[in-house]
Write a structure and sequence with these properties.
Layout (H helix, E strand, L loop, with lengths): L1 H39 L6 H15 L2 H6 L15 H36 L2 E3 L3 E3 L6 H32 L2
Antiparallel strand pairs: 1-2
């Protein structure tokens, strides 16, 4: 399980790096569009379509695995800190399983939509045609990988709960 966690961590960092590169390209494209529009009267073709259908989904979904791997999702631990280690491990396992199931369901629905878009060769006609089916796979890929990480960590949390129980019963 530890090897899977480490692998997913590395993959998450890679996906976050790809998202960072997409951010840089998006900023560069928008600067070219604005500069072209106001300096030369010729905006960059289909910037709005490319930004909204390529760069924004990459920025939203690709870093998801890295955020979860680093435990940086929003968490409200009002009562959690007052619980013992076993209860915390049990709650961690429950939360991770619930989040993993939610992500898996969203990823499954996203995969069906991505496959439909792929089969249709989906594109948008703006100033130039923009192929839009490839970024549809960002959500299912990131969602399934993050769900896998949640399930791996839930198993570890169950192990922590069991070992904490064994340690407290020895006292």
């Amino acid at each position: 399980m530890q090897q899977i966690d480490v692998f997913l961590g590395r993959l998450g960092r890679l996906l976050a790096l790809v998202a960072s590169l997409c951010l840089v390209v998006m900023m560069f494209q928008i600067c070219l569009d604005v500069g072209g529009r106001y300096l030369f009267g010729k905006p960059m073709p289909s910037t709005l379509e490319i930004v909204s259908d390529w760069w924004m989904p990459a920025l939203i979904f690709l870093p998801l695995l890295n955020v979860e791997w680093r435990n940086e999702n929003i968490a409200v631990d009002l009562f959690y800190q007052g619980l013992g280690p076993r209860a915390q491990a049990v709650l961690d396992a429950i939360a991770l399983v619930c989040f993993g199931v939610f992500l898996a369901l969203i990823a499954y629905a996203g995969f069906e939509q991505a496959m439909r878009a792929y089969r249709q060769g989906e594109f948008i006609i703006g100033m130039i045609p923009v192929i839009t089916w490839p970024p549809r796979f960002f959500l299912p890929v990131a969602g399934f990988l993050t769900a896998l990480l949640c399930f791996v960590r839930a198993v570890r949390a169950v192990g922590r709960a069991a070992s904490t129980k064994a340690e407290t019963s020895d006292i």
